[in-house]
């Protein structure tokens, strides 16, 4: 089956490639990392989690093992075939409307940096639409030097090398980022469109969606817990926007 790629995104290498250039087999090989521990420390025990952009379930299974209930969403059926133990939904995240809410909505994998502003707005609206009253949205941001410390490479303890080869401006504040993943036996590449967001720009994007930062969860500020803005904050934002439009 031919997969239609998102404009500006590309992936190469063996196996299925998703519309945003992700290689299913590569992500199946990717080690878990510290993300499940960061998430577990930031949310109530036994929470119901909506995982947006779950991929092959790299974080899904560890979260299940920690006692959470997870609904995993991804636009790639090939990715979701690798997810075990969780309810799975194949859909575009920015258009998702399940008609239910969750204690925690998880938006990882730097999706908040989508090059298309309307896609980013759709992603954040999906988060707001699905988070329960009193719940939280956990978001993973890019590192502060993601677009400037280029080229660079990192040798992972599991045995592969990740190289950010280039991050070239393509207009409207967006960069085309090219990454290589080199294993002893196989190589994958991915090209994505990414919009740098410093802390102020990130918080402005959250405010536009009716969210605010509750806390930065890691010293590098890459993991964030956001909550719904209060009524007074949302009203003040609306008044400010209306005045700016006049």
Q: How would you briefly describe this protein structure?
A:
The protein is α/β, with parallel strands linked by helices and 246 residues long. It contains seven helices and twelve strands. It has helices spanning 24-29, 35-42, 60-65, 77-80, 117-130, 199-208, 231-245, and strands at residues 10-12, 48-52, 69-74, 87-90, 102-107, 131-140, 152-155, 161-171, 174-182, 187-194, 211-216, 223-228.
Describe the structure.
- There is one protein chain.
- The model is unreliable at 232-246 (pLDDT under 50).
- The relative contact order is 0.14.
- The termini are far apart.
- This protein has helices at residues 24-29, 35-42, 60-65, 77-80, 117-130, 199-208, 231-245, and strands at 10-12, 48-52, 69-74, 87-90, 102-107, 131-140, 152-155, 161-171, 174-182, 187-194, 211-216, 223-228.
- It is an alpha/beta fold.
- It folds into two domains: 1-22 and 144-196, no CATH class; 31-141 and 198-245, Rossmann fold.
- The chain is globular.
- The longest helix is centred in the C-terminal third of the chain and has 15 residues, at 231-245.
- The protein is built from seven helices and twelve strands.
- The strands form two sheets. A seven-stranded mixed sheet has the order 4-3-2-5-6-12-11, sandwiched between helices. Strands 1-10-9-8-7 form a five-stranded antiparallel sheet, with no helix packed on it.
């Amino acid at each position: 089956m031919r997969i239609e790629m998102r404009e500006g995104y590309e992936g190469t290498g063996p196996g299925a490639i998703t519309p945003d250039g992700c290689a299913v087999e590569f992500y199946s090989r990717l080690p878990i990392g510290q993300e499940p521990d960061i998430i577990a420390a930031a949310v109530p025990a036994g929470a119901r989690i909506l995982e947006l952009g779950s991929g092959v379930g790299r974080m899904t299974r560890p979260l299940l093992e920690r006692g959470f209930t997870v609904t995993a969403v991804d636009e790639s059926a090939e990715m979701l075939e690798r997810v075990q133990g969780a309810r799975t939904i194949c859909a575009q995240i920015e258009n998702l409307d399940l008609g239910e809410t969750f204690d925690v909505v998880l938006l990882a994998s730097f999706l908040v940096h989508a090059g298309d502003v309307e896609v980013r707005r759709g992603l954040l609206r999906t988060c707001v639409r699905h988070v329960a009253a009193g719940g939280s949205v956990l978001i993973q941001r890019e590192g502060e030097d993601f677009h400037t410390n280029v080229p660079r490479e990192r040798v992972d303890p599991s045995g592969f090398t990740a190289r950010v080869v280039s991050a070239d401006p393509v207009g409207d504040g967006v960069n085309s980022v090219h990454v290589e993943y080199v294993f002893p036996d196989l190589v994958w590449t991915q090209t994505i469109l990414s919009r740098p967001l410093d802390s102020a720009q990130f918080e402005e994007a959250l405010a536009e969606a009716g969210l605010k930062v509750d806390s930065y969860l890691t010293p590098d500020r890459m993991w964030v817990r956001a909550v719904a803005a209060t009524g007074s904050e949302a009203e003040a934002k609306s008044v400010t926007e209306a005045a700016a439009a006049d």
